[in-house]
Amino acid sequence: MDARFTAEQEEIRRTVREVLLKRCGPEEVRAAVRTDGGYDSGLWTTFADQLGLPGLALPEEYGGIGCSATELALAGEELGRALVPSPFLATCVVVAPLLLALGTQEQRADLLPRLAGGRATAALAVPGPCLGDVLGLTGDNGGDWAGGGRAGGVQARRADGGWRLYGQVEQVLDGHSAELLVVAAHTGGYARSRTLLFAVRAPAEGLTCVRQTSLDETRPRSRLELRNVAAELLGTGEETGDALEALAGTGDAVAAVLAAEAVGAAGRALERTVAYVRQREQFGRPIGSFQAVKHRLADVYVRVQAARSAAYYAAWATAHKPSTTRTPGTTRTPGTTHTPGTTRTPGTTHTADPADPARTSPTVPGERVGGLALAQALEALRVAAAEGIQLHGGIGFTWEDDAHLYFKRAAGDELLFGPVHRLRAHAADAARLFEDGEVAV
């Protein structure tokens, strides 16, 4: 693997950071989370019109740029540095790949250009706080979270030549502000129990969206109530394997981008702490000059750098995996992940920069490393935020200071996608590290 980024990738990082420095300071973040949507819609429009960020990883035929998970992760790292409240994660990282994997050609042509152009946002609605299981990060996605034929979750039934949804979904990321909802619902009862994905266009008759109080206000969550809501089945088939496979297949990319976001936040928290300990004086000298403080910050730095390496590798590995995007009803054929100006073919050596043929990367094996990278990044963010609060002293515990925002981001992401020990335990089980209670050698 070549750890260097291309000039284009560095340009994406630089451009996103410049926009955020001008438009998204601490006061702007606090103001954005208090809006009805929970984010700055003007900033999102700027990202769409000037940078094409919503369509960064979507194919060019749908109005996107055609980049890969690596570019998404780099943009996510910059968004994480500023703790930007935005529909980037729910729309671009979670829902868009599901539409590519499951949607018919007509559904893709209708929905994806709207997402790529920033004219609409989207959210994935799955029952309860089980998003980590749904994406295959903290457990095997067997579909039982969708109701399993019993009361609870969302139920789907045929009616008037279409589908109708009933039920309630909690903890939906950015659900209250999304114009498109991808809802996981159970159908078939006991005889033919299966989980399918449906598209619901908001607002819709019978659909109620209520924003919930959340620990991390920069990740707004909602409760959806569906009462006889008209829905459109994603794809043409009704086999549960397609939906579950698409959800689990999205997990690594989501984890890689989340890990990059956490690394960006952890790096920024460390920078703020270092700047503070250089200024605050105790016993006539800056507290940063004390050896104990230096050791603590050095430990945080090592954690952050290790987590950054893991996040970058996870993004690279995801970008080099064969794509599962296909036309429903056809045979799955491994696709290619395309970055403008490059060609990436799974199973072959990739030249990252046409101007420098010596810069090549080997093929990544069929491993899933996103969960491990996410665990390391969330842990690094939690430690960096906690040390920042401690070393800021009394001011670190105040609402006016920003230190608590980083700690809430770490805790909130663990509640939504983790926790860390489950991410690692599932990765260990998948790798079969422990068999019969002993370490596999």
Automatic annotation (TrEMBL):
List residues of the Acyl-CoA dehydrogenase/oxidase N-terminal domain: 6-118
Positions of region (Disordered): 321-367
Q: Which GO terms describe its molecular function?
A: acyl-CoA dehydrogenase activity; flavin adenine dinucleotide binding
Q: Which cofactor does it need?
A: FAD
Q: Which residues form a coiled coil?
A: none
Feature: compositional bias, Low complexity: 321-351
- Does the record carry Oxidoreductase as a key word? yes
Q: Does the keyword GTP-binding apply?
A: no
Report domain Acyl-CoA dehydrogenase/oxidase C-terminal positions.
Answer: 257-321
User: Which UniProt keywords are given for this protein, alphabetically ordered?
Assistant: FAD, Flavoprotein, Oxidoreductase
Entry's family note: Belongs to the acyl-CoA dehydrogenase family.
Protein name, entry field? Acyl-CoA dehydrogenase
Supply the source organism for this entry. Answer: Streptomyces acidicola
Q: What is the lineage of its organism?
A: Bacteria, Bacillati, Actinomycetota, Actinomycetes, Kitasatosporales
